[in-house]
Amino acid sequence: MPLSGKFILPVFFLTLFVSAIILGPLLYFGLAVVWPVPFHRAMDRAILISAVGALGLFWSRIPLGKLWPWNGGAWKGWLLGFFIAAVSIQAMMACHLALSGFTSAHLSGSKAWGRVLLAIVAALIVPPLEETVFRGFIQRELVQGLGWRAGWVLAAAIFMLAHFLKIPVELDHQPVHFWSGATALGAAFVNMGHDLLLPDNIGKAINLFLIGLILGGVFLR
Fold first, then answer.
1. Quick one: average pLDDT of 157-174?
2. Cβ-based neighbour number of residue 44 at 10 Å
3. Predicted model pTM
4. Both 44 and 132 in a single domain?
5. Core-most of 37, 85, 117, 169, by most CB within 10 Å?
6. Would you give the distance in Å from CA 162 to the centre of its chain?
7. What does the pLDDT read at residue 70?
8. Is the Cβ–Cβ distance between 31 and 42 less than 8 Å?
9. Is 97 in the same domain as 109?
10. What is the pLDDT of residue 1?
C-alpha cells in the first residue's frame, strides 16, 4: 500500500537517520582495515549513503526527466553552467589570494593534483545529488503538501539546516562502539543549534537560506 503524502518525508528522514546510526560505526570499523578514516568522517559518509538509500524508497516520485534533462540542447546548458562555475571559482580564488597577500600553504605537485581531482569529482557528484534530494524530492513533497510558497521557504530552511549538521570532530578522541552512531548524531543536532546562535555563523546561515531560495525558485520555474 503506497504511503500517504503527509507521511513520506517523515519516513524518509527516519530511514535516513536510523540507517546512518547503524552504518556509521560499521563503516568506521570496515574502512579501518583498508583505508582508516576518523570517526566523524565515517559518520558524514554514512549520512550521505543513507540519504541516497532512503531516497531510493521514493525514487518513482522524483521527476528525473524534468530535473536533469539531457535531450535537445539541454547538454549545452550543462556545459555552460560548469564553465560559468569554473570561471567564478577561479575569480573568487584570485580575490582570496589577493586579500591574503598572495600567500597560501605550500603543496607538493602530487598533493596539489590530488586536491584538484578530488574537487572535480566532488563538483560532478555532490551538487547533482544535493539538488535531487533537496529540490527534486524534499521541496517537491513540501510544495505538494503545503503549497508552493510555504513549501519553497521550508525547503530552503531545511537546506540551510542540513549544512550545519556536522559530526563533532571531538568524537574522534573517544572509543567507538556499535552504538556510537546514536551519540554522534545526537551531538550533531546539539551542535547545530549552538552553531546557529553564534554571531560568526549568522551570515553563513543567511547565505545558505538565500541559496536555497534561489535554487528552489529555479526548480519551481
1. 93
2. 20
3. 0.82
4. yes
5. 37
6. 7
7. 75
8. yes
9. no
10. 46
- Would residue 139 be called left, alpha or beta, if left means φ above 0 and alpha means ψ between -120 and 50 degrees? alpha
Quote the pLDDT of residue 104.
Answer: 59
Confidence of residue 102 (pLDDT cuts 50, 70, 90): low
Residue 216, domain member (yes or no): yes
Same domain, 95 and 193: no
Task: Please report, for residues 28, 31, 112, 136, 189, the alpha-carbon distance to residue 67 in angstroms, rounded to integers and kept in the order given.
Answer: 34, 34, 34, 6, 30
Query: pLDDT at position 176, please?
Result: 93
CB neighbour class for 173 (10 Å; exposed up to 12, middle 13-18, buried from 19): exposed
Considering the domain architecture, whether residues 159 and 125 belong to the same structural domain is answered as: yes
- Cβ-in-10-Å burial (0-12, 13-18, 19+) of 151 comes to buried
The C-alpha cell at 128 is 547533482
- Whole-angstrom distance, CA of residue 90 vs CA of residue 121: 17
